[in-house]
Amino acid sequence: MGSDDSAAAKHLSLDLSFKNQHHVVTMPASTPLTDIQAMAEAKTGIALIHQKLIHKGKTLTDSTITLGQLGRGTDTVKLVLIGTSAAALSALADGPKLVGDVRIINDLGSTGGSDRGIAPILRSRRHGFQRVDVLPHLPEQDIARRILTELASDPGVLHVMEKYQWSVGALCEMYPEGLVGVSTVCVMGTCS
């Protein structure tokens, strides 16, 4: 047997990591990336089109590369799989979800997610904003109130306020002061 025959007959261990789970299999060194991807699909349920295989920090893009080429000088090739299953993708596409008491809205491609008309009313809570105040003499008070109410009701803002136990009496709109990039003082309370 020549050295080419022994290299072709060599088997390597493949350690495929996906979401903190390791799938270890033994495969011939001549196994191309496409066959590794098919094995990854069988083990994880991630379709080939949704897979990204990473080796030593680099994404593998050459489908003709072999396991032996990846594992030069080692007996084990470590790959990380990143991807999303078809079930998870279809769950994302189902639309709005209800998580706790916060409605999550997929506004990508929507034509008017923010023009719902009436702004949500702030609930009485120990930490957070107690009310919103808009400037009485400016136009578009309804839009300003809706923006302030959405900000005051934002789950991320509320989480931080709960975490640090902050309570603010009012989230207020402010009169603009100065000019952006011109004045030494610039407070952008309202935008026209």
Compile the SSE list and pairings.
Elements: H1 3-9, E1 11-18, E2 21-28, H2 33-44, E3 51-55, E4 58-59, H3 67-70, E5 76-83, H4 86-93, E6 97-99, E7 102-104, E8 128-129, E9 132-133, H5 141-152, H6 155-163, E10 167-168, E11 171-172
Parallel strand pairs: 1-5, 8-10, 9-11
Antiparallel strand pairs: 1-2, 3-4, 3-5, 6-7
Task: Write up this protein.
The chain is elongated. It is an alpha/beta fold and 192 residues long. The protein contains 6 helices and 11 strands. The strands form 4 sheets. Strands 2-1-5-3-4 form a 5-stranded mixed β-sheet.
Strands in their spatial order, largest beta sheet: 2-1-5-3-4
Counting helices, strands and paired strands, the structural category is alpha/beta
Radius of gyration, Cα only, in angstroms? 28 Å
**Helix/strand order:** HEEHEEHEHEEEEHHEE
Main pleated sheet:
5 strands, mixed
Q: Low-confidence segments, ≥5 residues, pLDDT <50?
A: 1-5, 98-121
DSSP strand count: 11
Q: What best-fitting shape do the alpha-carbon axes yield?
A: elongated
Distance from N terminus to C terminus (CA atoms, Å) equals 82 Å
Which percent range fits the helix content? 25-40%
On the 0 to 100 scale, the average pLDDT is 76
Q: Please report which band the strand proportion falls in: under 5%, 5-15%, 15-25%, 25-35%, 35-45% or over 45%.
A: 15-25%
* Contiguous helical run count: 6
* Quaternary structure type: single chain
